[in-house]
Design brief:
It contains 2 helices and no strands. The protein has 73 residues and is mostly helical. It has one domain. The chain is rod-shaped, with a radius of gyration of 23 Å. The mean pLDDT is 83.
C-alpha cells in the first residue's frame, strides 16, 4: 500500500510540475507509464499473496493428513 501511495505521489508531482511547453500527449504518456507501473506492482503483490495463501493451505492439508493417519493407527 505504501508503494502505491509513493507512485501516486510521484505521478502527482509530475503532473503538478507540468511545463507549458509540454503537450497533452506528454502528459498522457506520463500517466500511462505511471498506471502501467502501478498495475505491475499490484499484480506482483497479488502473486506474492497468492503464493503465501497456497503455501499455507498446503501446510494445513499436510497437518490434517498427519492427524488422520495418526488417528487411524
Amino acid at each position: 500500500m505504501k508503494k502505491l501511495l509513493v507512485v501516486f505521489a510521484i505521478a502527482g508531482s509530475l503532473i503538478a510540475c507540468n511545463n507549458a511547453a509540454d503537450t497533452t500527449a506528454d502528459a498522457k504518456d506520463s500517466i500511462d507509464s505511471v498506471a502501467s507501473e502501478t498495475k505491475e506492482m499490484i499484480d506482483s503483490t497479488a502473486d506474492q499473496k497468492m503464493d503465501k495463501v497456497d503455501s499455507t493451505a498446503e501446510q494445513a492439508k499436510d497437518s490434517l493428513n498427519k492427524i488422520d493417519s495418526a488417528a487411524k493407527k
